[in-house]
Amino acid sequence: MLAGALAVMLGAALAAAPGTATVEARALEVSGPGWVRVALDAETQAAIPPEGGLAVLDPDGRAVPSRLVTAPRGTLSIALAATGETADGWTVDFDTGPLPLAYGRLVVTPSRETAAAVRVSGSDDRTAWTPLGSGSFVRLGDEAGLVRTALDLLPSSFRYLRLEWPRSAGFPALEGAAVVLREGALPGAPSLAAQVRPASEPGSWRVELPAAGMRGVRLVLRGAGLEGAPLQLLAAREGRWEPLADVAACADPCAIALGGAPLPSAVLRLEAGTGGGLALDGAALELERVWMLFEAGSRGSYRLVPSPGSDGGGLPPGPVEGPVAAVAPGAPLAAALPPLDADATELAPAGRMPRGWLSWPLVVPPGVAPGDVVRVEINDALLAQPGVLADGLRPMVGDRVVPFVLDRVAEPEPLAAVAATGGRVTLPVGPADRGGVQIELRAAPGVRCEGEIEATWVRQSRPGVSDRGPAGIGAWSRGAAGAGPCLAFVALDLPEFAMAVELVPRPGAAPPAAARGWRTRHAVRFAWPDLAPQPEKDRAVRLATGFDPLVAIAPRVLSVRRQLELRPVIPGAVDLVSTSAEIERMARLTRWALWGALAVAAVVLLVVLGRGLSRGPAAT
């Protein structure tokens, strides 16, 4: 698989020349062959690529089949490990798996009617057993009062559980068993600090995390005035704000549950549903417990490296049996990245060039070498150029396209903010705002938060005449717990030349009090090509516009994105000045040529007329 292949190349490239791009690896000291479990600390989790995972390299630099696993929640089925007969009856051993789980209840499913007084013990090696609880399992008919198949245990995390079954109850015929995992943060779960900064709107804060993609369980806030405050948390995802979590009334400190899913961005936004009196001075993000599991073939120094794949290639088939060695990540190491594949470096035919296309040369810092990753922000000045759309831009060398990816910056950019007039909002939109615009509406405090908001685009089809059309619909919400301000989000669908958008409540809906626009930010990212083999006239990289977004190179985008994901980027810029000067020079030449052509035509016309007049009297 891709992750395993990348890990092999990483290992082979560790002796690369100075200056080669590197990633941060972590050392793993393994004492011998067998299964290994690595608990990932907060720093290691923060180094996992947002759309990738981790790979394990053995002492020789080869990829080891591995997998990232997280702590399960709720009820977990456990495997039958062994049964044995004793003088008093039978023992049934269960294996809860290779992870150190935290559970407090055992549930069994008898396959026939039974009544058994049992004892339960726990062990990590199936040699020394610790008593965890005792009670009765009963299944007599289907009446609820005669069925009891759960037994509370002392809170524990042993891998193996032993059920001692009395002979008087008959052979323990069980269809299955499970443990009920304890809720809340697990012991030893990592956490890291998050920066909290006031936003421009009163009652709003930016929560800045070290990286995107981390599996947050809880966000714990510190500050004054938290007691009883309703809060709503929003996440930035591909240039739009989305509600993430909320709490109806905070305690002090205030904890907002996140569920353990990967966070979509490194920036969150916090909104308070109350007025003043709330001051935040910090936060901590409690993370899900995450482990890397792999089977070591020998003792030695292994390495944990970021991988663009989802995991290290998957575990071999079959259960993880026998002891599992717990290893902690060691000191960070620098691991060289492999050369880029042809997918990310070979120029592709552009095909049929668009009509009326323009291009601009790119400016990069001196010393940029082939294979360096360049990232060009698509700013307002570029978007304001004739016919420019973000997804229609291509980096080009001559008439060939450089493999690239179009990035969507996770955090949107704020646009105009306006107050409503009579329950209606009118927001202007410029020519650079046609794509990726989201309108955030805010209702006045105390209103009933319900209903939908309808958006309409407005454009001037000809002087004095305006067209209108549907632009999108959004619904009011205070969050799952009814917390935070009353907000609605409308993702706009705007046609070309739209000038403004009007937002009005549908009948029975809450009217907006204010609105703010947010715009998706884009950037073009690509590996700088080798220009030496190109003809001298083509030894430049240009950004061209006017292409169809559904161009044929789309299937290569995923491969290119994975390869470029881990590499540091060099900022590039579009040279609009020289292109504008060239366009102006060509316009001047065109104007002079036009005037010259008109002058020549006038002279020719006069000559022709003169000759005609001179011949006329002679003929008479």
What report would you give on this structure?
The chain has 620 residues and is mainly β. 12% of the residues lie in helices and 45% in strands. The strands form 7 sheets. The protein has a 9-stranded antiparallel β-sheet, with no helix packed on it. Strands 27-31-30-42-28-43-29-41-32 form a 9-stranded mixed β-sheet, with helices on one face. An 8-stranded antiparallel β-sheet has the order 19-18-21-16-15-22-17-20, with no helix packed on it. A hairpin with a 5-residue loop joins strand 15 and strand 16 (204-208).
Annotate the secondary structure layout.
Elements: H1 2-12, E1 22-30, E2 34-39, H2 42-46, E3 53-57, E4 63-64, E5 66-70, E6 75-85, E7 89-95, E8 103-110, E9 114-123, E10 130-139, E11 147-148, E12 150-156, E13 160-166, E14 174-181, E15 191-198, E16 204-208, E17 216-224, E18 231-237, E19 240-247, E20 254-257, E21 267-272, E22 279-287, E23 290-296, E24 300-307, E25 324-327, E26 332-336, E27 348-349, E28 359-363, E29 373-377, H3 380-383, E30 394-397, E31 400-401, E32 404-408, E33 413-419, E34 425-428, E35 437-443, E36 452-462, E37 465-475, E38 487-491, E39 498-505, E40 512-519, E41 522-527, E42 542-544, H4 557-564, E43 569-574, H5 576-619
Parallel strand pairs: 2-25, 29-43
Antiparallel strand pairs: 1-24, 1-26, 2-23, 3-4, 3-24, 5-23, 6-7, 6-14, 7-13, 8-12, 8-14, 9-10, 9-13, 10-11, 15-16, 15-22, 16-21, 17-20, 17-22, 18-19, 18-21, 27-31, 28-42, 28-43, 29-41, 30-31, 30-42, 32-41, 33-40, 34-39, 35-38, 35-40, 36-37, 36-39
